Each structure stands twice: as structure tokens, then as C-alpha cells.
Amino acid sequence: MYPVAALPPSSAAEHDDTAIIIDHVDKHFGNVHALRDLSAEIHYGRLTGLVGPDGAGKTTLMRILTGLLVPDAGHATLAGFDVVADNDAIHVVSGYMPQRFGLYEDLTVMENMRLYAQLRGMDAGRHTDLFTKLLDFTRLAPFTGRLAGKLSGGMKQKLGLACALMARPRVLLLDEPSVGVDPVSRQDLWRMVQALTGEGMAVVWSTAYLDEAERCNSVLLLNEGRLAFAGPPDELTGRLKGRSFRLEAVGAQRRAVLAEALDLDTIGDGVIQGAGVRVILRAGAGPEQIQALASRVGARLTPVPARFEDAFIDLLGGGPGGTSALAERLSPVELTSDIAVSCHNLTKRFGDFIATDNVSFKVHKGEIFGLLGPNGAGKSTTFKMLCGLLKPTGGEAHVVGLDLRRAPGIAKAQLGYMAQKFSLYGLLSVRQNLEFSAGVYGLDSTTQRERIEEMIRIFDLHDWLSAAPDSLPLGHKQRLALACALMHHPPVLFLDEPTSGVDPITRREFWTHINGLARKGVTIMVTTHFMDEAEYCDRVAMLYRARLIALDTPDVLKRDAASADRPDPTMEDAFIHLVETSALTDEVKI
Amino acid sequence: MKSASGQEKSIVVRRFDPARFVALVRKESLQAMRDPSTLLIALVLPLILLFLFAYAVSLDVRHVRIGVVLESPGATARTLADAFSGTHYLDVTFAYDRREVVGKLIAGELRGYVVIPQNFERHFADTGSPLVQIITDGSQPNTANFVANYAQGVVQTWMANLTGTIPMPAVQLEPRYWFNPELASRRALVPGAIAIIMTIIGTLLTALVVAREWERGTMEAILSTPASVLEILVGKLLPYFVLGMLSTLIAAALAAFLFDVPLRGSLFALLVLSAVFMMPALGQGLLISSLARNQFLASQLALFSGYLPAFMLSGFLFEIDAMPAPIRAITWLIPARYFVSSLKTIFLAGDVWSVFLPDLLGMATIGLIFFLIAQRYTRKSLE
Fold first, then answer.
1. What percent of chain A has pLDDT over 70?
2. Which of A10, A99, A114 faces B9 most closely, judged by CB atoms?
3. Selection from A230, A309, A233 nearest residue A271 by Cα
């Protein structure tokens, strides 16, 4: 394994294993208060998770710790060096992997490694042993001659890690290393980082995936620039002892049960988990109400271990209620056929690259259908062909029985589409955005006015009508995007990564609406890389390397991955299991 | 250099480390060679520009198309009409009715026309002076002027021949044009084009490659290493300096061997001038990239602050002496102005150091100012 020569040096360090001290750090960007009076410590030999939703201040903190940003107030030291006063030393003792792939895509793996070795004062010719070790460690040895731009997401991150490890830093800072990495490579990254901490290095791993927090030795939980929690993750989840339950095998009623449960005043949070509903009691509340609900629907109520995300939501005061004002207003969808969306042998090639390879499935009316897979697996391409944004190279796709090749215009009028990152018009006001989408779907002017007023009422947008979409809080922005996509009351709704970069509470609110829509018979197609979100889906299509490797209900997919030492696998475990058992072995696993 | 929090440890980081510098230059060179767009801008674009300025752009007035409308049937009138066809400065279309040529003038096929009216003979016999009308296309004032003056000249010469009384001027003018005896505009344009090419490589390309590092996030990773800003920036400029000099040599060779522009000065002087001109060009590129961290903005800034002034205010295309005083004052701020002046001298006159030295001083001063400002704005920080 990789040796760390530079352990905390001075005599003081023998008593003190503190690698990083953050002391009342404050940082503004214009009007945005990115970090508010933050104080914390990070230790050697431990994996510390810097956890929080997007915009919580994780990257700002990372950049301050690597000396790339100067705090407005307060101090920070890393390995005993002040990040401002001893800026040069910081760059010697720390290794940093930025959130975006920071290596040169037009240089090869080896050229990138050499560059970083030389920049860190090492002679690449004489340190062949270190290179061999790093290549071994990252399993990149077979790809040294490949351009970095041609590596898969996981391999890129491993190369980034190898370059950040050059010259043996005492502190390793990784900014969202697991984004864009498939679950199998993610396991690899965890393994590497754990080996490094085992040898005394301080490793900081920032992430927006709350489930990753559970794997860290210690966690700094950030929310809106404030430290919400610091300590071992089980200390936080421990606060929820005896408050997490699952209503087992609720089946077809699960969405109705969830909505009802969330409206109970003793329930702080709830999500769908396969055929079950997982609920969290508010602090101090008894299980009587939920027990009554369980008996009424004939479901068994079992206690389950708390998760980090539950604890986070509890810390923020619980999630939203279960009733969707939007779905209440919609009339049930009537379709002539039970099949809302279907595709047959759908294939898309870009040059010699196959993005979607022979994919076929059928989606029923009122179903929530998930397309799941890591970045680059072909989710977006498949999705775009299904909603007529991209012409298939082969095969066919139908929406509400209409062939997308023959009648793309009529078919598109039957679907609503919410693109990644919401794609609202930044230069139009909120009202103008609503007016535009009403106009673009060709509603007559009376209907337009009615629908716009309806959306404003449902989504509570009154106070924001003349504001620019970018100035909206994230939750409102998401409501606006959903309102725009639903303006023409489409029977089929396409959601492309609707919750990426969104905090867990906003995600809950979003799913409340989606569940409500599904109960009214709207067919929902959704792509996501949040594996646990797939639990909300009726059926999930798993895509990996352009192919459909599995298609079933979340429960069946998870059951297949269950083993003696993993009786209750997560969706991520299920995915890894599928990839490992399918013939498509990952390149890095040679 | 720095000591840390009372402990006995310190890490000295050198501001300029040759090994790191070499690594950065090597990286930049590899990237430049692998990026087809770099080679396109550095080598193909200069070729296209040179060919364009050498063949397509001409400021010379030759073969101007005019019409001559002969409405008078007389023999005298006919000799005047013939006088117009005897020069290669004009291409004459003859007509007997002015309606034939009016349409052509409007369509831009003719730049003007001369009418010899029906009563030409009688008027000439009565007064002894010829009566002609000259119509020109005022939408192109220079050509219109030329047509009017030249047509008058033709009429006067014709008069002189006819009456046999050639009015002898007091002074006989025999102009000699130095440096460019044929007054071929190509000879003045091609040297100037080198300044444009160097501006593109120095300013545009540099601004783009630095902005690209910010845009792709590679700058963040490099800044987190011990490499200093000085190493990063100089390591970035050196390969483009070499590329610019290479491009100059190619352009000079093309000028001399393909376009018949004589290089009367020495190659040494040309290289010295080009090398010094790279200072303001690269400095400006660097300054732009420290202000604009995306490629689109950087290219727009480079075009408006580098390329266009070099094109219009350097004396390359338009004579500085003919500009209004305020614009003339602005040209002193344009580094290309000094370079164009020296380039024209070195190609058409020779090594005239009394011209070069002030030009070199001007370029170096502007370059230094750019570098100083750029250094102030580029810090090892992401803000």
C-alpha cells in the first residue's frame, strides 16, 4: 500500500493529532454568506466527511483550507501552517483534488502524473518506485498512455487522486470525489482513502450524498454555511434511536399511505422504500398515530435503524407535509391505452460511440418509471430520444401511442419536460417564464390566464412574480420549473435529474408532488443518479454502458443482491451486484 | 522563509524553481502541439492573411471602369472620346445615349461616366472651350475624386494636342517614388500584415489559453501545488513566444520569396523587433486573461483591444498622418503602430536604427506597463 512518510512532525504533534484547525472562519461572496463563523477540527489518521447539500459552503471551506481563498474573518491552520500567512507551505503539505476534474485532458495519464510530480519538486525519473506504487494503488497501470480526457469518470477521479498524492501530502482534501463516478469505482475510491487514513494521513472527503457520511470516521455537517453537526456519524443517527420505522409491504397503496403519514403531526419525515414506507417520528412523539395508520391499512410496523439523512432532516426540523396542492387540482388522466411510453430496440450512435444500445421497455399509465445509472451510462441519451429531442439511430419510441418519428409535434404536446438544472429563462421574470411556457404549448388565451393563476396559487409564487428565477430559493425555483412543465396538463411527465444539487428537504417536497401526480394517473419518467431515490419508482431500468442490464421493481432488484452478510441491501448495493454479475466487467477491474 | 505557529518547522518554497518551470513549459508545448486550433491560429491563419493582403487587398487605383457617352456625332467630339481609351487607368465603355450607362452606374458596374453632349461641336466652335459633363459615384469618394480629376486631365491634354499650344508649366515635375517605385500597395501591406499576425498569436492565443485553464478548472489544481504564479504565467508565455517568432520567420520568408517584397534590412534586426513586439502583445493577452476567465469574453476583448486597433490604428491600412488629431494621439498607445513603422522600414528601406530605436522603446514601455498591471491582477487566489 501507499506509504506516508510525512507524519505530523514536531514534538507537539505527539500529543496532538490535530491536522486542521478552523477557527471562527467567515466568508462572503457579494451578498452570499458562504461560511458563517465556522469552527471545527480535523484529525490525522481519520476520514472526515464534509457533508452538506449543494450551496452549503463545502467547496468554499475546501478552497480556504488549500489557501486558494482568503477568509474574511477568522483563521485556519493546516498541519500547523496558517493558510494565509504560510500559503506556500500549505501547498507543499497538502494534496487537493478540486470538484471539477482539474487535470489536462489533452495530456496522457503518465504526462499528467509527471507534471504533478515535477511541480511538487520530485524527479520523475528517480521516483519510479512511487509511480509504480501509485499506478498499482489506483489500478491505472494499463492506461498510462491514454489521454486523460478519454478516461471514464471513475478513472479520472483515480488519476486526480494519484496526482494529489504526489510528494506524500500530510493532509488530503477531496472535493466531491464521488460525483460522476459509477458505484463500482466509488467502492474503489473508498478502499483507497481508507488505506491512506490507516497510514496516518488526514483525509477530508466532501460530499452532497448524505449516505456517504455514514462511511466516514467523523463528519462535519454543513448547512447554509453553518456547522450543523460535528462528530462521528453514529452519534447523530443515535439521536434517532427508536424513532425510525417502516410500514412493510404496503404495496400499491404506498403513495397514499406516505401522504397520509406525512400529514400526521407526530411524523417528521417519510420516504417510500420499495413496497414499504419509511417514517421518522418527531422528537418526543410516540408511535401511536403511525401504529393506528399501520393497523388501518393492514401493514406491519417494524423498527429500522436510523440513517444519516433522517438525522439531517430531523436536525433541520423535519420535512414537508404529504399533500400536494398541485395534484389536488388536477383531474385524473384518461388514456385510451394502458401503455403510456414504450420503446423498442432503441439505439443511438454518435460516430463510433454507442450511447444507447438496443434498449426496449414499456411504461404503464400512472407509473413512476426510473432510469438509473452512473454518469455516461446513456440515461440522458435514452431519455432525450423518448421525448423527441434526439433522433434514434435505430429502433422506435412511442409516447401515448404516437410514433415520435412520424408525429413528433403531436407527441411532444402530450408530454411535459423538465430539463436538468431546471433550465428556466434567467432574463425573464417568474411570471414571464410561466407565460412563455403557457404560450409555447399553444393554449388559448383564456386557458393560459387560468392556468397561470392556478400555478401561482398552487406553488405559492405570488411574492416572486417579478423576481428573476435565479434569485429564487432553490425550492421555489424547482416549483417554478415544475409549474412550467405542467402548464398544459400533460399525461406524461419527463424529469431529467430533477433533484441533483437539491437539498434533502426540497427533494422531499418535490417527491410529494410527483407522488400526487402519479396518483392522478400521470405517467412519470425520471432519471436520477441518487440511488436511494430510485425507491420512489414503481419500476427501475438500470443502464450501464449504454445497455439495459436490469428492469424490475426496486424490491426485486434489492432482493437479488441480498446475501448472508448483507441481508438488507441498498439500491447502490443492488447496482454494484448487477454490474458485477453482468458480463460487462469494468475496465479497471483487470 | 516562513515559520509556522511557534513551532520549529519551516518550509521554504522557492519563487522560481527551474525544474517546475521546465515541467510547465513542457506541458504547455505538448498541449499546443496537440491542439489543432493552436496550430491553425499560429500557422494557417498567418498564411491566409498574407495571401489575402498580398493578392486580394489592393489600395491602388487601376482599371477604373467608366462610361463615355458620345451624343455628338461630330469628328472633334470623336477624337475626345478616343482620348479616354488611351490610358490603362481607365476601362472605357462607349455609349451613344446616357440612358445606357445610368443603369450601370447605379448597379455599380461603372464608377462614373463622361457625357460629350449634342451641342459639343457648336459650343466648342463658339467659345473655344469644350463642354463635357462628368458624373461620378459619390458612394466611393476616393474613386470618385480620381475619376473626376483624371477625366479633367484627359480633356485638358486633348485640348492641348488639338490647339497645338501646349502650356509649358514653369516647373517640370518628374516624381520619383522612393522605397516603392511602382507604388505597389502589396509592398507596404505585407510587412504590416506581420504585425497583425503577431498580434493574433501574442494577444488572442495567449488570452485564450489562459482563459481555457480557468474555464476547464485546471488552474485551480495547478494553483494548489507549490508552483508560483510567476512560473505558471511565464511557463505559459514562453511556448507562445517561440510560436510567434516562428510564425514571423515563416511570414518573412513568404514575403521575400513569394510576394517579391524585398527585405532590405537584416534578419537580425527583424528578429530583435519581433521579439520586442512580443512583449506588449503577450502582456496584453495576459492582462486580458487575468480579467476575463472564460474563452468567449477573452476572445472578444482580444479582438477589440488588440486586433482591431492593430488593424486600423497602426498605420498598416490607413495612414496615421491622414487621421484627425485625437485619433492620431490614440495611435501612440497602440503597440502595433511602432512595429508597423519599423517593419515597413526594415522591408522597404533597410536597417535604419534611428527609426527602430524609438519604436523599440515605445513597444518595450507599453509591454512593461501591461505586465505590471497583469501582475497586480493575477494573484494566487481564486477570487
1. 95
2. A10
3. A309
- List the single residue in B with minimal CA-CA distance to A9: B9
Alpha helices per DSSP H over A199-269 = 210-213, 233-238, 254-262
B10–A89 C-beta distance less than 8 A:
yes
Q: Which residues contact A411 (CB under 8 A, 6 or more apart)?
A: A388, A398, A399, A400, A402, A403, A404
The answer to whether the Cβ–Cβ distance between A85 and B2 falls below 8 Å is yes
pLDDT at A290: 86
The closest CB to that of B7, out of A10, A105, A120, belongs to A10
B36 inside 8 A of chain A by CB: no
Q: What is the pLDDT of residues A249-278, one digit of tens each?
A: 887 788 888 888 888 888 888 888 888 888
CB atoms within 10 A of CB A565: 5
| Cβ–Cβ below 8 Å for B224 and A66 | yes
CB contact A162 to B (< 8 Å)? no
Which residues in chain A have Cβ-Cβ distances shorter than 8 Å to B218?
102-104
Partner residues linked to A500 by β-bridges = none
* Rounded distance between C-alpha atoms, residue A213 and residue B86, angstroms: 93
Confidence of residue A586 (pLDDT cuts 50, 70, 90): very low
Instruction: Determine which of A18, A118, A123 to mutate to test the interface with B (most B C-beta atoms within 10 Å).
Output: A118
Q: Which residue of A lies nearest to B380 if distances are taken between CA atoms? A: A68
Burial classification of residue A563, based on how many CB atoms lie within 10 Å of its CB (0-12 exposed, 13-18 middle, 19 or more buried): exposed
Mean pLDDT of B326-355: 90
One-character DSSP codes across A554-581: HHHHHHHH-BTTBSS--HHHHHHHHHHH
What pLDDT does residue B61 have?
65
Cα dist from A330 to A262, A333, A434, whole Å = 21, 8, 18
ipTM attached to this prediction: 0.73
Cβ–Cβ gap A80/B7 under 8 Å = yes
Looking at the DSSP assignment, which residues form a beta bridge with residue A77? Answer: A21, A82
A 116-155 residues with CB < 8 A to B: 116, 118-121, 123
Cα–Cα dist A586/A575, whole Å: 13
Q: Which residues of B touch A105 (CB under 8 A)?
A: 216
DSSP A331: P
Q: Which residue has the cell 432519471?
A: A527
* Contact by Cβ (8 Å): A158, A178: no
pLDDT above 70 for A13: no
How high is the mean pLDDT of chain A? 84
How many angstroms separate the CA atoms of A211 and A308, rounded?
Answer: 6
Helices in A52-107 by DSSP H: which ranges?
58-65, 87-93
What does the pLDDT look like over B79-128, one tens digit per residue? 888 888 877 778 888 888 888 888 888 888 888 888 888 888 888 888 87
| Domains of chain A, earliest start first | 12-235 (3.40.50.300), 239-323 (3.30.70.100), 328-414+490-581 (3.40.50.300)
Interchain CB contact of B379 with A (< 8 Å)? no
The DSSP call for residue A108 is B
Rounded distance, CA A355 to CA B130, Å?
A: 82
Residue A85: list chain B partners with CB under 8 A. 2
Sorted by where each starts, the structural domains of chain B and their CATH numbers stand as 28-57+183-377 (no CATH), 64-163 (3.40.1710.10)
Which of B2, B35, B382 shows the shortest C-beta gap to A68? B382
Q: What is the pLDDT of residue A590?
A: 33
Burial tier of B168 (Cβ tally within 10 Å: 0-12, 13-18, 19+) = exposed
Summarised one tens digit per residue, pLDDT across range B166-206 is: 555 556 666 666 666 665 666 777 888 888 888 888 888 88
Cell numbers at residue A186, please? 466509488
